[in-house]
Amino acid sequence: MFKMQRELSFVLFSITVVHAVLSGLYVDNGVDQTIIQRTLSTKEKQDVSHDLLNLLGLPLRPKHLFSNATSIEGSVPKFLMDIYRSLDNPRRTTRSEFNLGGKDLQSIDESDMIMGFSSRNHHVSNVRHEHGKRIWFDVSEVPPGETIVNSELRIYQMINTTADPWLQFTVSIYQVLVDGELEYVDSVNTTAGSEGWMLFNVTGPLVSWVAIPHSNKGLYLSVQPREKPIHEIRTEDIGIVASKVMHLEEKQPFMVAFFKSAHGGITVRPRSRRIRETTKSRKRKSMTETSNYRNPYTGFSDSMKEAAYNSHSCSIQTLYVNFRDLEWQDWIIAPDGYGAFYCSGKCSFPLNAHMNATNHAIVQTLVHLMDPQNVPSACCAPTKLSPISVLYYVDESNVILKKYKNMVVKSCGCH
């Protein structure tokens, strides 16, 4: 784990070192100001974008979807934005227009990735019932190797002012099989006077569609009066929004799936030769600079100790990645960027308490001063990291909310 933490922080730091200070990457200028020093060439911006996409586990940049900024008018991005905001809220509650319950919050906590699917117009094999609605979702973008924790279908019901509000109905979901037959999945009870999102568990159908893609013939939505269960009525008769309606984008039916990733939501790519060479250069420079310090056994004045604790000692530094500067605002919904931060500075004798030095680092520092050619100095590295969440479009109808572990440096120390 510690090796991965250092690897992640080093990738971001190395990009900064190799390209000086880059467009889209903001750092400290040494006088408590965060600045950007120069503009990237087209080639440089492509290189940085490629490196960051690899870090985020994306093989390619999603296709250009919107002219200026991402749209959040549909039900899917709005739902996932609701979850995104809840992740940043320390006082999480179940209060939401989407009726997020305890099970939803549990699925959110257990998952590394949440994927939303908008309903699509798609021809499926005929079924014998005609009063209900057929709903289809494109699940081809589900990454391989992800474990499905849970999957839900959400259908919106509007109040039907022309019907008796106390009339009771059963809304059922069926999976359309390859031969056109229907297999029961889940159902909820409602009344004509109800309004809000209805929730159905569709984990089973999603598992089968991902495992056998050609079996995806969609779902069938059926509404039956409680007093006449063999009689099927039209979904519109009780105000169900079961298909795309231009002025009701926020009420469009959608499916959401919660995934657990085997690699914790992030893939670390092998470091390039360019970065490895930078590492060697930094190590040589660090050894040269540190070896110039006086040996503690020959005496250390108070002024020397004070100098060792100045701004050049190991500490956290600003590194902000701006997604808009990288021209990613057409597919990333949130955030606009993120504060990655990084660790920089010397781990020089004497190691003060604010350096969060390990006992081993203290011993290594002492031995380094006695034999700097053979024993390197302790390194300034993250001691605590926190995750970030990124909400982005995969295509024009599917949206992903992905958690990335160990992406933000919270504290630094000598190791």
Automatic annotation (TrEMBL):
It comes from the Eukaryota. GO terms for molecular function: cytokine activity; growth factor activity. Its main location: secreted. One of its GO terms (cellular component) is extracellular space. SUPFAM superfamilies: Cystine-knot cytokines. It is found in: Secreted. Residues 1-20 form the signal peptide. The keyword Disulfide bond applies. Transmembrane segments: none annotated. Residues 282-415 form the TGF-beta family profile domain. Keywords: Cytokine, Disulfide bond, Glycoprotein, Growth factor, Secreted, Signal. One of its GO terms (biological process) is developmental process. Belongs to the TGF-beta family. This is Protein 60A. The lineage of its organism: Eukaryota, Metazoa, Ecdysozoa, Arthropoda, Hexapoda.
